Amino acid sequence: MSIYNMSGNMLIDAYDVSGESTEKAYNITGQEIYSKELVLGQEYIGGYIEIQPDSWDGTTAVNGNIVQPDNPTAWGFPMSLSVTSKANIKSDILNGTTGIRYIRFPMGFAYRGYRNIDSATGLAKNIGERWAGQNNALREWFSNIAQNGGGLAPEYWCIAPYWLTGGAYSANNNRLNAGGSYPQSKPLKDIKTTDLTQYNAQIDEFTDAVVDDMLYLNTNIAPVVMFSLSNEPSYGTQLYGACMWDAQTYNDVFSALIPKLKAEFPQIKFHTASSDENQPFSGIASTFIANNSANIWGYSHHSMRKASGEVGNGADEYYKSNEFATMIEGKNNVFINEYEYFRPDSVGDDNFKCSNNMVHLIDEMVYGKAEVLHPIIHICKPTGQSSTGTNTKGYCLYQVNMNDGSYTVNTWSYNSWKMFNDNLPIGSRFVKNYFVDVVGIGFMTLIKNEKLYVFVANSTSEAKTLSLGFFGNKTFDCKLYNMSNLGSVIAQNDNIGTLTIPAYSGIFCIEN
Q1: pLDDT value at residue 74
Q2: What backbone torsions phi and psi does residue 381 show, to the nearest 5 degrees?
Q3: Phi-psi bin for 483: left (phi > 0), alpha (psi -120 to 50), beta?
Q4: Is 19 left (phi over 0), alpha (psi -120 to 50) or beta?
Q5: Which pairing describes strands 407-409 and 396-400: parallel, antiparallel, or unpaired?
Q6: Banded pLDDT at 11 (limits 50, 70, 90)
Q7: 477 with 510: CB under 8 angstroms?
Q8: Distance (Å, rounded) from C-alpha 391 to C-alpha 342?
Q9: Could you tell me where in the chain the CATH 3.20.20.80 domains are found?
Q10: What is the DSSP track for 333-354?
């Protein structure tokens, strides 16, 4: 096996397939780099976060279910931000060269305008902007990301009304309907064994509509670079749009989508299942996973309560548990795509939340072998929202004053993410043989351009001192992150023989 630098130049055959060191490693100019093998893991490709481009407030109840009106108060992001706020956030985390590269995009929820209205039913077959200018604002905000290889990662919270058994984003027990001459309320799953011709025809027509939605986003907002069929596929009734899937229909639809989407977007990344089931990869997504492993780039899940500490003791306990190891069953690129605190005041204080989020991000890369990191669910939320469904402080990086479009940073989440946003280079690779397993400590090392990047976080109430070993004579420059420090320079460390991490803090070190 060979070692390569980030430009693709081979350095040397430095270890064999068993991981045993065979000889020293040199760069292309003949200088010795390391006298042990570099066991390289996954590549870090960027941050991943959700945008809420539209409100989802509603007041009309049908059978106890809140129905989204067509025209609630039109707020959303970045539209509700001031010109200055939009520019500052874009420069800060949406610059395209560091930090966030992938935007989780909520189809049929916070992006739910109607397109392609069916004349017979009056229902929309496709989803688009809900008011004029919504797409333009999004396109401008994500322009740096689009120019630098990132883009949108759409998922359907709910498919367009025409395809739903309930005929509306928010209805009771919504499913993909059978279409054809069947009643609107007939689920597609019910006709597979009795009318396979119509079953396949409906899948073909529906998947064409999905491709149309992706082309629309790609043209009007930003490149579509990632896709998952359904957020929370086990829910068919929610206060917002929702669509329930069963394992067979999910498999048949998603499997039919893959060649169609690849034809339009050859480099698109597919992930599954975006579910918060107890066993997300052995539930609704299980049949699809069994049949499409070669096409699946990643596995997303919603174990946010366990990682946050709302259930259990926080991220480090969860990621190092047998439960997590059993859940992922040896899969690579496993990541939470909804990290949040439903009740932020019930789990420690902000010092814990800040440091626990650092540990979550590190452990996801170490134990989940994640290629993307998800700092928290939303870029922005309005100030003053405090219910478990809309909560500002537990859900965002930036808290927005809707009266004037200004914002304040949500310190616990913002400071924890900045350690990675500002210092973790896109295109770096995880180094497997630098590993520390200490309770309450997250630790990882990455390499890019023959330089090491070290991240360590302590989510405990006591300072921890680690003994670390890096071969060769190395000098590191280090910075401190916590609720009071946002990259404060700390003492230069020769070879980081020992490193003391204060309570509830993170430290980043770069090889000098």
Answers
A1: 76
A2: -145, 150
A3: alpha
A4: left
A5: antiparallel
A6: very low
A7: yes
A8: 7
A9: 42-83+93-302
A10: SEEES----SSGGGSS-HHHHH
Question: Tell me, what's the pLDDT at 18?
Answer: 33
Rg of the chain in Å (alpha carbons): 24
Can you spell out the DSSP letters for 491-511?
EEEETTSEEEE-TTEEEEEEE
- Per residue, the 3-state secondary structure of 403-457, as one string, reads CCCCEEECHHHHHHHHHHHCCCCCCCEEECCCCCCCCCEEEEEEEECCEEEEEEE
Distance CA 154, CA 101 (A): 13
Contact 3, 40 (CB under 8 A): yes
The model's pTM is 0.90
CA torsion sign for 422, 427, 433, 437 is positive
pLDDT the model gives residue 468: 75
Which helix (H) or strand (E) is 246 found in, with range?
none
pLDDT at 31: 47
Instruction: Round to whole Å and give the CA distance between 260 and 113.
Output: 23
List % helix, strand, coil for the chain (3-state, nearest 5). 25, 30, 45
pLDDT at 429: 95
> What average pLDDT does the segment 141-169 reach?
96
**Which whole-number Å values give the CA distances from 489 to 170, 385, 425, 468, 500, in the listed order?**
51, 36, 19, 20, 14
Cβ count within 10 A of residue 205? 13
- Give me the pLDDT at residue 50, please: 98
Distance CA 419, CA 358 (A): 8
> Distance between CA 99 and CA 217 in Å, rounded?
22
Cα 164 to Cα 158, 174, 388, 436, 496, distances in angstroms: 9, 6, 27, 50, 58
Dihedral over alpha carbons 303, 304, 307, 308 (to 10 degrees): -160
Q: What b/e string do you get for 328-339 counting C-beta neighbours within 10 Å, with b at 16 or more?
A: beeeebbbbbbb
Q: How far is CA 154 from the centre of its chain?
A: 11
100 within 8 A of 145, measured Cβ to Cβ: yes
pLDDT category at 480 given cuts 50, 70, 90 is very high
Q: Which long-range contacts (CB under 8 A, 24 or more apart) does 393-402 make?
A: 393/341, 393/344, 394/340, 394/341, 394/342, 394/343, 394/344, 395/340, 395/341, 397/49, 397/93, 398/89, 400/77, 400/80, 400/81, 400/85, 402/75, 402/80
User: What per-residue confidence (pLDDT) applies to 5?
Assistant: 36
DSSP label of 250: H
Question: End-to-end alpha-carbon separation of the chain, Å?
Answer: 28
Residue whose token pair is 């939340």 = 353
Q: How far is CA 73 from the centre of its chain?
A: 28
Fold type of domain 42-83+93-302: TIM Barrel (3.20.20)
Across 244-369, the runs of DSSP E, i.e. the strands, are 269-275, 296-301, 334-336
